Amino acid sequence: MALILTEISGSTLSLADGDNPILTYHYGPDLYKPYFHPVYAPNRQIVTADSPEDHRHHRGLCFAWGNVNGINYWAEVNCDEAVRGRIVHREFREKNVSADLARFVVVNDWVAPDGTKPIEAVCHITVHQPHLDMHVIDFCFELQARSTDVIMGTPPAYHGLCYRAAEMEYRRIINSNSRIGELEAQGKPAQWCQLGGVLGEEPVGVAIFDHPSNLRHPTQFFALDETFGFISTSFAYDEPYTLPSCEVLALKYRVLIHLGDLFTFDLWKHYEEYSRSKG
After folding, report:
1. Which of these, 237, 220, 225, lies nearest to 182 by C-alpha position?
2. What are the backbone dihedrals phi and psi of residue 247, each rounded to the nearest 5 degrees, phi first?
3. How far apart are CA 59 and CA 52, in angstroms?
4. Which domains does the chain have, with CATH numbers?
5. Measuring CA to CA, which residue among 206, 209, 236 is closest to residue 220?
């Protein structure tokens, strides 16, 4: 099949493999942050949740931060407007779709309540041709401090690339160090972290890979599987990071959505392939 891009200008981009949906990217001007939802597994089951009742600001798959120079670019509700920022779409620098991959390059401004823009974020997004058992999305986030140093703070410890899972049966976190469940995996460094469960009567896993070139690799993950499913790449989980003025911080991740459990799908093989790549 061929990858097909459908766009509603100024609002969404949707990608499909023929009749099989892959994902939709939302970037409209009224949003607090751009995000992906729905994101599909190869069995056409949706693996993301958008604005669930328990946390209305959880948006599928997105990149956000709860404490940047004291401004919250994560929360959308229950947050004082004086400290609530927005991540605003500025432009697409590239939108290419070929037979075997789709590539988008997006520029976003992180806008503080006073109108200043402490961070420019260039997001490189590559969606690979789907396989029967997996979908693969690569991300590279280039964050530039515009005019002054930027403190990417903590708490909260959940920040970075964030994934809010759809409801699934037998939901469970596992990481690359074989730590199982949120009590074992929460805040622990790992090369990858996965949330697995059953969707559409099939086992499905959503894993986030941390590229070896990333700052503070292997990253600490914020990981939940009891009340709801959630993963974020929290490299500042314990310690803030200061991004110097006019410097660029590049962060590379792969999101791999697969059918099968870890007994039938070799996640380590795919991570090792990714770790040898430029990301």
Report:
1. 225
2. -90, 160
3. 8
4. 3-276 (2.70.98)
5. 236
Among positive and negative, which fits the CA dihedral 114, 30, 141, 160? positive
Give yes or no for a contact between 237 and 222, defined as CB atoms under 8 angstroms apart: yes
Cα–Cα distance for residue pair 214/146, rounded to 1 Å: 21
**Cβ(74)–Cβ(66) under 8 Å?**
yes
Coil, helix or strand for 189? strand
What pLDDT is stored for residue 220 in this prediction? 98
Is the preceding peptide bond at 155 cis, omega within 30 degrees of 0? yes
pTM over 0.85: yes
Q: Is 146 left (phi over 0), alpha (psi -120 to 50) or beta?
A: alpha
Do residues 200 and 254 lie in contact, with contact meaning Cβ atoms separated by under 8 Å?
no
What distance in Å separates the CA atoms of residue 83 and residue 213, rounded to the nearest whole number? 32
- Single-letter code of the amino acid located at 23: L
Amino acid at 242: T
CA dist., res. 3 & res. 226, Å (int): 36
Q: Which two tokens stand for residue 28?
A: 């409209």
For residue 265, give both structure tokens.
């799908």
Give 143-166 pLDDT, tens digit per residue: 999 989 999 999 999 999 999 999
